[in-house]
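Quick log. Single chain, no ligands specified.
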Amino acid sequence: MKNCRQRESATIQDANGHAYRMKCVFDKTGWRLTVYDDDLWVADANCVVGNNVVRIGNLEVFEEAKGGKRGLGRWLYSILNLRNDVKNYRKRGLGTALLKFIVSSAKERGMQMVEGSLSPVDLVPNPDLPDWYKRRGFTVEGGGEFGCGRVYLDLQTR
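-> predicted structure:
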């Protein structure tokens, strides 16, 4: 069976009602969600899909989103590590909006669960991350793939 990619555009809003454009690529093994504020890349999520489970590989809202240049100019700025129009997009509710989009997309596609792991890479800069997931209806358990924790949301009981 051929792995068919489905590309979509969507809009999500932060807690203040600011709208962000999102590019979505869905296929049978994974999802790639990229969030933009105008042309500025501000957040993304990568998910692995299998056995009716969506596994969040990462969900990140950038502390240092760089913008102001396009194409070759953007590439040169990034390779030379030049700072240009740096903005922090955290603490705006954008991560919550992205997580809600993942959950609703999983439900629309008949998935049974959304899950992820918490690793030291996640927890050192974000020690409140387990509580963040709990406030959004997820169950948090110790252990997990990386030994720090597992988060999951059973979509069959919601």
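Helices lie at 71-79, 94-108, 120-123, 129-135.
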